[in-house]
Each structure stands twice: as structure tokens, then as C-alpha cells.
Specification:
By secondary structure, the protein is an alpha/beta fold. A hairpin with a 6-residue loop joins strand 20 and strand 21 (655-662). Helix 5 crosses helix 8 (198-227) and helix 9 (249-260) packs parallel to helix 19.
């Protein structure tokens, strides 16, 4: 706390202490008011404006300092000033005093509370940004909640002062009117509680519920308005409870959940079930990475005392059968494909139709089959889960030299006898880094071009630097802070990518160009425009994954903001349950503690906040780091590189985030994700027995490093003295 804040806090406490020490609170009791009413009425008749001014200032002071007696003061307004002036002065004085209390709490306490609670406040702030006006209005309309607590609590939030003021003015008006009116009948009151009898309290509670009833009604009106143009086309009966458009990760989970709830579900997919993850994304890329890792291990087998007879003794290269590598990739896809097959989902109770789906009306879906026939089905609810497709840059000359994406890479490579001799990867995100390293290990000369100053720009700089070092060690030439300008063909017919770094242009000769610049939602052909559903980069949804039309939902890459298979599956479960049960109950999608892994070697795994995110959001944190070159299992495996970095609340073991760089980082992240999800701290991880020697011990040692940094030094000094005394 700064000196200025400390001085203000001391001054406020001194005033409150003086209030109690001088027994000033006796003047704010009902018995005093009743005994002095006649005298104050006489003074008011002689000096009306002086009494009004004094009353106004006193009321502001009492409410600003959260002193007891505001209720009696309100009664005094009606008893002495009359209903009109009493209501006017109390209304403005109470709101002004409440605003002063709001400011005081914000100035004195908010930073300390933010430091203590950290990201847990984010959900509260987000909720208040969305519904804060409704919450505050309800609290003000129901006097059961002490207003001084509302003042202090709201000061800790990010609510705007003007919003707080006018909502308080409006919300406190009914209760103020009741008390001021009761003050005009002061002689009949035996206690303040007489004012809030059961009928009055019931009326105010009903009034307090009004904002939420109004909000629900407004949502109903908005939905009716959005569906208004289609009202005449709403079916009397529906063919299905749920239609899911898209058979990738989100679509499959949505359909499965619907069938598990015993709803009648139809899943529509234009291609093969499994989506990008199975056919062009997660599965083939990880299989390729496994082959590349095997080649790297064979290349460096001599580290472990193994001399491979097949390795070329002059070049150190391991002969690679690229067709067999691609066959392994295809076998991996084929082995996993039955998990996502039509047969499996049909057995689970899902009707699977292959074709291109388009929304004709908010309830009707046209399904165009490969033979050109169209089948139309109606459903009470619809989930859009069409995924995303690779981003292709608008580079001049790109069409002339051709390019690959994650969608086209696998078929193109399956036709080759060898990997591309010269491969340029455009993009230094997770996909670009993974594929660049894989092809370098399989024998390609790879150059990676990234516009940002570091690879994996969402990660901390030390992570980006570690990945760059790993790629360069495998022979990848990394160009960061480099802009791709155009593609062209040289006079000899070779392909080139012209790039610019620090104002200087250069040409990179290539055989293949792989665009790995991220993915964009698949929105074309769905008919969203005709229904008025907003969709730009993604389909716009609310916290329940509803679109503008409340019975149409979206999940996965098409809804964003994450482009992760497990995030798509996570959203899909909520989308289908909300779609089917939303009339009874619905659930907001929780996004906290969502892990992510980049499968380079060494892997990069993260959950929660990293350093640059915490700094950007102004969240205080401590960093604990455990280097894996100290881990016994890493030393045994010859992979003693990387680290575990944990962010915690200052002075506490509560985890804000974890980043791991190292072998098996994706698996090593699980204890931290579990701990964050269930509110467990590093002490709980430290107190868990881990088998030796394993990679999982890294979590325990990271927790131990935090514990050592927070050892109770004073207690340990006393123990040292005690043990010294014992030795005498």
C-alpha cells in the first residue's frame, strides 16, 4: 500500500473510531429521533435550507463511511422534512455517499484483492461486464442485502462509476420511498424493523426479481424478433431432435452426446467422418513426427553405444524409405479411423448421412448427396460444427509455383519416393514448427519463414528461443522477423520465395512451399447469411454457444476462439446438452485451465497463464523453475534438456499457469492441469508420492523448488537453536 493510500485508510479509521468513542451513534437511533422530532421540526420551520443542507451532508457522510444509522436517518427525512423533500434529499445523498464508499474501496482495496485472487477475478469481471447492471439493480431493489456491503464489494470490480451511480439511484428509490413514507408516521413505529414488514419486504423482493424477469423477457423478444420472418415456416412436428452439421471432433462429440441422452440425432458430413484431426491434422502429423523421431534416434544412436550398420559412415545419414514412412502414416490413420466410423456411430444410435448440408430455414436442413439428390430434414435444434480450413496467403505468384497446406500435404507426399529436397515452411506457429522439424529429420533442407520476431509467439520468449535452437540443431534454417513478399520462377525454371528481413530482400530457392499460417472457419455454403446469423472470422455465439437464432448452436473451430481438438470436443458436449435441454436448464462453457501442446522435440506444453500473458493482464505472480537437467530419469534417457516453469500467486502455492519444455511435456502437464481444475496447490503435488525414476517426478521437484523458496526461515532458525540445545 502506498503512503497516500495508507494515510487515507488511517484517516477513515480515525473518523470511524471517533464516531464510536464519542458515542455519536446514539443520535442515529430510533428512540432519539422520536424524542427529538418536535425540536427538529421547529428548527426546520425556522431555517429550512440550513437544515436541508446539514441533513444532506450528514447523510452523505454516514453512507460514505458505512456507519450504522442510515435507516434511521431516512426515517428522519420523512419525519422532519416531509415526504417530498425527504425523498429528494435521501435519494441523492444516499447515492452520492454510496459512490464515495465505492471509490474508497476501489482506491484502498482493489489492488490487494486482485493480487490475492488473480485470474479468479476474471470470470467475475466478465460476468459483471455482461450482467453487472442487472445484478446491481437487483441488489439495490432488495434491501435485505446491506447496502454498505454492496458499496464495498462493487468497488472491487471494474464497473464504471457512472453506471454504478445511476443504477444505484434508480434501484434504491423504491426502498427509500418506503422508509421516508414510514418516517412521516414516526410516532407509530416501535423499531426500524416495523418498516420492513412481510408485505413490504415481499413487494420489494418481487421488485428485485423484476430485472431478471425483464432480461429473460427481452431475450425472448429478441429471439422472437430474429425468428419472426421465419415464423410461418416453423414445422408443427420435427423429424429430429438434433441435427449436427460436420463430422469432425466437435460434430462427433455433439452427436454422441445427443444419442447418449436418447434423442433422435442425425449427423451430416460431406467427406469422411473424423474431420481434419483424423485425416489431415493431429493423427497423420503425429505419426510423421514419430517416424522423424525414430530417424533422429537412429542418427544419434552412437550416444548410447550403438553403432548402426545401416548408417552411412561418411555422411552420418540414415537411409530412409520415404514411401514406407508415408505408409506408416496411413496405417496410423487407418488404425484410428474405426473410432470415428459410420458403423460405430450408427451402433451408438446416431443416423449418419453423407452430403453437403445447407440451412434452408432455421429448422430445415437440405442435404445434397453425391448423386445430386437432396433430402430435407427438420430439427428442433441444430449444431454447426464444420471446422476450419488452412489459411492461404494472397502472395503474388503463388498460383504459378503451387503450394501445399495441411489438407493437401499428405496425398502429395504419398506420391513421392523421397521427401522434398528443398522445403520452405511459411509460418512459425505450432504446425509450422512441427512439420519443419519432421521433414528436416527425414532429409529435407528446410527453411522456415516467420513474420514475428520469435517462433510460437504466444509463448514466452525463452520457449520460442528453445524451439528455435532445437529446429536449428536439426538443420532447419529459421528466418524470423521476415516477410514473404512474392513467389516467382527463376530463368532456369526453379521456384523461389522472395522475402524481406530488416529492409533487405532475398530469394529462397525451393521445391515445395508449405503454407502453415493457421486455419479459418468453414462458413461457405451453410446458408448462414440467408438466416441473418452473424459470421465473420467465426460464427458468433454467446456463453452457451447459441447463435443469434437461439436453437442453432456452433462448436469447435467454426465457433472459436481455440483451434484444438480437445477444445472442440469440450465445447461440443455443452453445445449438444444446451441444444437438447436448454428449455429446462443450460450451461455456460468453462474455458479455464485448457491445456495445449506443441509436439516439437522437445515438446512444449502449457496450461493457464505464462509470463507474458500475466504481465499483459497486470496479474501479479511468482515464477518457480525446475530444470530437467537435474531429473534422474532425464539423465538416464539422455534427454536432460528443458524445464518446468510454474506461475503462482505471490506468497501462495495456488497455480496460475505452467509451461513445460522437454521430452514428454504433454504428459508431464497433466498434474498441473488437474491441480488447477480442482483448486489444488503445489503443496498437494509435493505431498503426492511419485514413482522413481520417472519423468513425472518433475512436477514434485518443481513443487519442491517453490517450497524451498517459501521455507519458514524464522521457524527454521528456532529449530536450529532447539537442536543445538539438544546437543548440549
Amino acid at each position: 500500500m502506498t503512503a497516500r493510500r495508507f494515510a487515507l485508510a488511517v484517516a477513515l479509521l480515525a473518523v470511524v473510531a471517533l464516531f464510536w468513542a464519542t458515542d455519536a451513534h446514539r443520535y442515529l437511533r430510533l428512540d432519539y429521533l422520536q424524542s427529538a422530532q418536535g425540536e427538529w421540526t421547529r428548527i426546520y420551520a425556522q431555517h429550512p435550507w440550513s437544515v436541508r443542507a446539514l441533513y444532506f451532508l450528514l447523510y452523505v457522510a454516514v453512507t460514505a463511511l458505512s456507519l450504522p444509522g442510515a435507516a434511521v436517518l431516512t426515517l428522519a427525512g420523512g419525519a422532519v422534512l416531509g415526504f417530498g423533500w425527504g425523498l429528494l434529499l435521501v435519494s441523492f445523498a444516499s447515492t452520492l455517499g454510496a459512490t464515495f464508499a465505492f471509490w474508497s474501496a476501489r482506491y484502498l482495496l482493489r489492488d490487494a484483492v486482485t493480487r490475492r485472487l488473480g485470474p479468479r477475478l476474471d470470470a467475475i469481471h466478465a460476468g459483471l461486464t455482461r450482467d453487472g447492471t442487472w445484478y446491481l439493480l437487483s441488489l439495490r431493489l432488495i434491501p435485505v442485502v446491506p447496502f454498505f456491503l454492496v458499496n464495498l464489494a462493487m468497488g472491487l470490480t471494474r464497473q464504471r462509476t457512472w453506471t454504478y451511480y445511476w443504477v444505484s439511484q434508480l434501484g434504491m428509490l423504491p426502498g427509500t420511498a418506503v422508509f421516508v413514507w414510514a418516517g412521516t408516521e414516526l410516532g407509530q413505529l416501535r423499531s426500524v424493523s416495523d418498516v420492513m414488514n412481510a408485505p413490504v419486504l415481499g413487494a420489494l423482493v418481487t421488485l428485485g426479481l423484476f430485472p431478471w424477469v425483464a432480461k429473460a423477457a427481452l431475450a425472448w423478444v429478441q429471439a422472437r424478433r430474429a425468428l419472426g420472418p421465419w415464423a410461418a415456416q416453423r414445422p408443427q412436428r420435427f423429424d429430429r431432435n438434433l441435427i449436427v452439421i460436420g463430422g469432425g471432433a466437435a460434430g462427433l462429440v455433439s452427436a454422441y452426446m445427443g444419442a447418449a441422452l436418447k434423442a433422435k440425432v442425425t449427423l451430416v458430413e460431406a467427406q469422411a467422418l473424423g474431420g481434419d484431426c483424423l485425416h489431415t491434422g493431429c493423427v497423420p502429423s503425429k505419426a510423421l513426427l514419430r517416424c522423424a523421431r525414430a530417424a533422429d534416434q537412429a542418427r544419434h544412436a552412437s550416444r548410447y553405444g550403438i553403432d548402426s550398420w545401416s548408417r552411412n559412415e561418411y555422411t552420418g545419414q540414415v537411409p530412409i524409405s520415404f514411401p514406407k514412412v508415408m505408409a506408416y502414416v496411413q496405417q496410423a490413420v487407418a488404425a484410428i479411423a474405426p473410432h470415428d466410423s459410420i458403423e460405430r456411430y450408427t451402433a451408438l444410435g446416431v443416423e449418419v448421412l453423407q452430403g453437403q448440408a445447407r440451412l434452408r430455414t432455421p429448422w430445415a436442413v437440405d442435404i445434397r448427396r453425391a448423386d445430386g439428390s437432396v433430402q430435407t430434414l427438420t430439427a428442433r435444434s441444430i449444431v454447426i460444427a464444420t471446422g476450419a480450413s488452412p489459411v492461404v496467403p494472397a502472395l503474388p505468384g503463388l498460383a504459378d509455383i503451387g503450394h501445399l497446406t495441411s489438407d493437401t500435404l499428405w496425398d502429395a507426399m504419398a506420391k513421392r519416393d523421397a521427401p522434398p529436397a528443398r522445403l520452405v515452411v511459411l509460418g512459425g506457429g505450432p504446425m509450422g514448427c512441427e512439420l519443419a522439424q519432421a521433414f528436416a529429420r527425414l532429409g529435407s533442407q528446410v527453411e522456415l519463414v516467420e513474420l514475428a520476431a520469435q517462433l510460437l509467439q504466444r509463448e514466452d520468449p525463452d520457449v520460442g528461443a528453445a524451439v528455435r535452437s532445437a529446429l536449428e540443431a536439426d538443420g532447419v534454417r529459421v528466418h524470423t522477423a521476415t516477410r514473404a513478399l512474392r513467389c516467382e520462377r527463376a530463368p532456369d525454371g526453379s521456384k523461389r520465395l522472395v522475402v524481406e528481413t530488416a529492409g533487405r530482400q532475398a530469394a529462397i530457392v525451393l521445391d515445395e512451399l508449405l503454407c502453415a499460417l493457421g486455419r479459418q472457419a468453414r462458413l461457405d455454403g451453410l446458408g448462414l447469411e440467408g438466416l441473418g446469423i452473424p459470421a465473420h472470422a467465426t460464427v458468433q455465439t454467446n456463453d452457451y454457444l447459441q447463435t443469434l437464432l437461439p436453437h442453432i448452436y456452433a462448436a469447435g473451430d467454426v465457433a472459436g476462439p481455440f483451434q484444438l481438438t480437445h477444445a472442440a470436443a469440450h465445447q461440443a458436449g455443452y453445445a449438444s446438452v444446451n441444444a437438447l435441454l436448454g428449455g429446462l436448464w443450460r450451461f455456460k462453457v468453462p474455458y479455464g485451465n485448457l491445456p495445449a501442446v506443441t509436439f516439437v522435440d522437445p515438446e512444449v506444453a502449457c496450461v493457464g497463464l505464462n509470463v507474458q500473458e500475466a504481465q499483459a493482464r497486470g496479474i501479479p505472480f511468482e515464477v518457480t523453475r525446475y530444470d530437467l537437467d537435474d531429473l534422474d530419469r532425464a539423465l538416464c534417457d539422455g534427454e536432460a534438456r528443458g524445464w518446468v516453469k510454474v506461475l503462482t500467486v505471490p506468497g501462495r502455492d495456488r497455480i496460475l499457469g505452467a509451461t513445460i519444455v522437454g521430452s514428454h511435456a504433454g504428459e508431464l502437464l497433466a498434474p498441473f492441469t488437474l491441480a488447477m481444475t480442482h483448486g489444488l496447490g503445489l503443496n498437494r503435488i509435493l505431498g503426492t508420492v511419485h514413482p522413481y525414476p520417472t519423468w513425472s517426478e518433475s512436477a514434485k521437484y518443481a513443487a519442491g523448488a517453490w517450497k524451498r523458496a517459501h521455507a519458514p526461515t524464522a521457524a527454521l532458525r528456532w529449530l536450529q537453536r532447539y537442536f543445538a540445545w539438544q546437543r548440549r
